[in-house]
Each structure stands twice: as structure tokens, then as C-alpha cells.
Amino acid sequence: MQKSKLKSMIRLVVLATALGVGIEHVSAQPAIIAKFDPASEMSLSGIVTYVDWKNPRAHVFVNVTDGSTLTNWAVELESPLILKGSGWNEASVKPGDRVDVKGLRARNGSRQLWSETMTVAGKPVFTLKDLKPATPARSEPAPRGSDGKVILGSAEGYWGFPSEHALVEDGVNVPMDRYGQLTELGDAAKVAPMQPWALALYAHRQERSLQDDPMFINCKPPGGPRQYQSDLGIKFVEDKVNERIFILMGSGNRNYRIIYMDGREKVGSVTGDDDNPLYYGRALGKWEGDTLVVNTKGFNEDFWLTNGGLPHTNKLELTERFTRSDMNTLQYQVTLTDAGAYTRPWNASWTMQWVAGQEVPTFFCQDNRP
Amino acid sequence: MKSTIIKTGLLAAALSLSLTAIAQEGHPMKGSWIGEWKGNQKLGDFVLLVLDWDGSKISGVINPGTDNLNITEATLNPDDWSLHIEAGGYEMDGKIEKLELPARSVVGTWKGPEGASGALEIVRQ
Fold it and tell me: How far is B50 from chain A (nearest CA, A)?
């Protein structure tokens, strides 16, 4: 890794701590450093002119006076969804308020600033709370239906807050942030057994600070295992009459994945097959004891396989195992086979946490594109 | 003459699509590419490549439907994203530019029969 890049990373960590980013809060947006430069910290004071309370991120526009010159700055904040969860709303600051802001300036030199808080009359506004639910001291057994099968989902909650935010081969430990940005670019080859072209492409995406992520610049769905690595979570809806399981996404514009449980063949459906590949592929599931095992093929090549930018091809096949090991824990294990991009099949696994009593959050990227 | 009309039609159709290049986050060479091999007096300046990746090699055809030059050799060096293609007595050498874009390009040179050569520029559609 280049020294300058390493220094930038260190500065980001230091600055993030200073800004209070150190707490665990949900994230479903593009990497901050994709747009804002960690090495370009700045402060401004001015008068609020407008509050744009839309996904994927809220903006507060501020008029700043410097001598006889008046300029308007856009202060970018977290998603309204996250801000609302932290107790704020679009009236928390109003046009006419005088605000002080500290943050990171946009890489392209435009008058945009990333910040996670601002002060009005000396009081902090838009500070973020830790939204992750506390882990219960005692874990209850996984709930079961009248047929004795483990219930993966119910109306009273959803699965979120994954223990990993990017796909990494089991047994490999490489430091990266919650967006999948490696701390050391030199670790890229350790992440997964990539073919040379795939490794070079992954490194290229990393070097560009993940700014080309199609999930954010084009609002594409979180295909493949990525759907299970968003804090905004997922929800299982089991339709036993029609023998299928729906997975609703909290991120990715609230689209859904269908797992067919009726033993159908792998081809011949208008919802996707080898001739009509999809973001979520064609998924066929079955129960093995308390574990839902899902085999999926038929992916298109229009998305990144994971936060951080691992590539894949249309040869990708996933074998996923979902196990609700107790009331609050979902074990997710996936075997990835893709002879187009990887040198051998490989495994990754993580857990998701049950968020009781809440609906899966609604997040629409295209409300206000970055 | 007929061949030129067909090629011109293909080019026009392809150019009309080029503003909305289809996303391709997999192998960087996979897909259709349109551009020019300038100075090609035998086949004309416009060129169309359709390329695929099977996990171990790049395959495809140059000017499908008209010249049908099957690619016999194609290699991509990911160290510098340089490309080499051989088909029907022609060779192309170039480098990928703007790798991160769906409408990425390859810029380089071509060589053909009887010492013909020139500049190459193709853009992924």
C-alpha cells in the first residue's frame, strides 16, 4: 500500500473518532471516502437555507459568508432512516439557524462536506446513536411452528446487524472498514482465491475507494450474499401453501428474492433461469434438519458480489445454509463456486441478529441519488 | 457496397446504444465492442467485436455476420490491462482505458495482411 494512502486511512480513523463515528450505527450507503477526502478536513459556520431530508443521505444547505463573498455549501449527513432512529427529524435544524460544522470536503472540489454532526447555538444536532439491539443475557431457543420446523421469520422482527460487512474467506483475517475498504491494499489477495484478472479488478475498485459501486451509483440491488451484509437487514416470509420463501431486503430499494421449495427444476421460469439471469439468481431450497439449504445459479454480472467489490461471473453458484441457532441468532454460511473468477470453491460465514418488534427498514436509494 | 451498408447500419445501431452501455461487473472484456481500426482498406474502418470469457480464455468473433473473423488467440494481462487478439490474419494490441466504466475502451494498434496497420479504438457497448 502506498504511504500516502495509508496516511489517509489513519487520518480517517482519527477524524472518524473525533466526529463520533466510532459507535456502531447502521450503514447502507456508499463508502464515505468514495466521495469525501479523509485528508481534507474543514470547518464552516453559516446560516441554514434548506434541509433536504431524502435517502440515501440527508443534506443541509448552508450559506457561508467570507468577507463580501457569500457561498452555499451542501452538508451531507447520514440517511434520514438512521438519523430518525437516532431521534432526529427534518425540523431538527431549520432555515435561518446558525450552524457550525466540521467534516470532510468532497474529493471533486465542489462545495460539499461530509459530517456526522453539527452544532446549533452550541448544542450538537444529528449525532448518531448505536441502533444495534442489545444481546439478551439469556438466549431463548429458536421458535418452531406447529409442524416442528424452525421459524426463520415472523411479523414481529427482522434480521440485521451482520457480524461481517464484506465477504472474506473463512479463516482469513484482514482489516477492513464496514464498507469493505481494505486497510492495506496488499491484503487483497488474501480475501478470496481470485483469478489474476479478478484480483486486479478488485484491487482497482479498492484503489478507487469503492466509488464505482453500482449499488449506489446506479441503485442496483445487493445481489448474491451482499443482501445479508447490510445493517438494514432482511426478513423471511414463508409461504408454505405455495412452497416458497420470500426474502425482503431492507436495503436495495426494498426488492425481494424468491426461494422455491417445491422441488422444481433449475430451468424454465420467467423469473429467471440460465437464459434470463438475475441479481438474486434462481434459488431452490430444502430443509436439512433445522437448516435451510439453498442452491442458487443464474446470476447476472451487473452487480458487485459484496461490499468491497469482489467480482463474479455468470458461472457463480451459491450454496447457502441458514440456521436459526437460537431466538436471536441466524447463522449464515455460503459456499461460492465460480470458475470464471475464482480458482476454487470457497466458504464464508457470519451471523445476523434478530431485531425484535420492528419492521424491516425501508430504504430507497433513488430518492435522492448521491 | 452491401457489406459497407450493413456495417454502417450496425455501427449506427451500436452507437445509439453506446450511451447506455450495459453494466458489466464481471470479466472486463466480455461483451460487444465497437469502434475503428483506422486505415483498414480491405474491411473498412469500422469494427465490431463480440467477446466472451469461459473462465480460462477469451473467445469471440470480429465483425460477426459480415467478415466473421473467429478469434484464435486472445489474452488479457491484468498487470497493466493490456490486450492481444489474433483473428483471420489480423492482430490487435491495446490497453483498457477507464476500466471502471461499463463503456470502457481499448486503445492501441492493429496489424493485418500485406503489412497493413493502423490505430485501434473500440468501446464496450
Answer: 16
